[in-house]
Structure formats: C-alpha cells, structure tokens
From TrEMBL:
InterPro entries: PaaX-like_central. It comes from the Bacteria. Residues 99-172 form the Transcriptional repressor PaaX-like central Cas2-like domain. This is Transcriptional repressor PaaX-like central Cas2-like domain-containing protein. PROSITE patterns: PROKAR_LIPOPROTEIN.
Length: 184
C-alpha cells in the first residue's frame, strides 16, 4: 500500500530518488512511467494517478525531462531539478551529535561582502539553524564536527571562499559554551 504524502511531498521524494540514481528510468512504452510506479506500492488507479500527477508537476516546473528514446520512456533530472535537490538537502541538514565530545571547538567565521548581503544573511541563518552558537556577529562556535556542512552551505550560496573554519582546543568563555552545549 502506498504511504500518505503531504501536498508536494510525493514529487519531492521522486526528485530526490532521481538525483540519488535510485530510479533513473527507461520505462516500457506504456503510459504512466510504469517502472517507477511500483516503487511507491500503489494500491490502485488513484495511487497511480497521484504518481503520474507528481511527475507532470515535476516536468511542468522543469525539474525533470520526460522523453521517448528507442521506444522507451526516459526520465531525467534537469539542472534546475538538481538545484532543487540541493535545497531539499540544505533544508534537512543537521549536525551529528556524538555521544562523547572530542574536546575540540569548531569555530566558523565569515566576512561576506555587502554586495552579497542576501547570501550572508542566508549563511548566518543556516549556521544558527545547525545549532552553532554566535560569539560575535559573524563568528559561531560548535563542539561538534561541522566542516562538511559548512562547506556545503558556503558552496550552495556561492560564498565558500569568504568562510573560515577553525578547529581549536581552547576558546574564551569555555564555561558558558560547555553549559550551552551540555558538554564537559
């Protein structure tokens, strides 16, 4: 039986699956992308219709191309679709919190020019969402590994070269930071 999806969630799941290579498809020349549909365990015509609608929405929004090649229906993610996947990844990004702290502080600093104010604000907001603690306006700290996430955020907003990542054993205000993060 197909699980229930909120509005837009089925299209999102299809797009993420395409990006991951989970079902890059060459379908038989039957309507309805018949090779993908079984992956969602549709119970009947209504479920198959919903999957078809999700594909049509993705195609209308230019996130996928659907075309016939050698008599087979092919679904391919577009450049815009790949960008949308990155947005989904960004939205769902979280830091892994280890059971035992390794004793290192991760300090993230940035000096993003005024001409890139929107990117600067977005980077700052995402860094806060990840749980880093602001110690100055553009300086954040975390006891957890976050280099990959910071690299991703910087690359996504096109400002990675304006971000510095530091790993340090000592930092001022350690008592307050340890209390904030619940580490010792």
């Amino acid at each position: 039986m197909m699980k229930k999806y909120e509005r837009g969630e089925l299209a999102k799941e299809i797009l993420l699956g395409l990006a991951a290579g989970g079902f890059i498809v060459a379908c038989l020349a039957m309507p309805g992308l018949t090779k993908i549909i079984p992956l969602f365990k549709p119970k009947g015509a209504k479920d198959r219709y919903r999957i078809n609608q999700a594909f049509q929405k993705l195609q209308k929004n230019k996130l996928v191309n659907i075309y016939i090649k050698n008599g087979n229906e092919v679904v391919e993610i577009t450049k815009a679709g790949k960008k949308k996947v990155l947005e989904y990844n960004l939205d769902e990004m979280k830091l892994k919190v280890p059971q035992k702290w390794d004793g290192w502080w991760r300090i993230v600093m940035f000096d993003i020019p005024q001409s890139k104010k929107r990117a600067r604000d977005a980077v700052s907001r995402k860094i806060k969402e990840l749980g880093l603690y602001p110690i100055q306006k553009s300086v954040f700290v975390s006891p957890y590994l976050c280099k990959n996430e910071i690299d991703f955020v910087g690359e996504f907003f096109g400002v990675r070269d304006h971000i510095i990542y530091i790993k340090a054993k000592e930092i001022e205000g350690v008592r307050e930071l340890k209390k904030h993060f619940g580490v010792s």
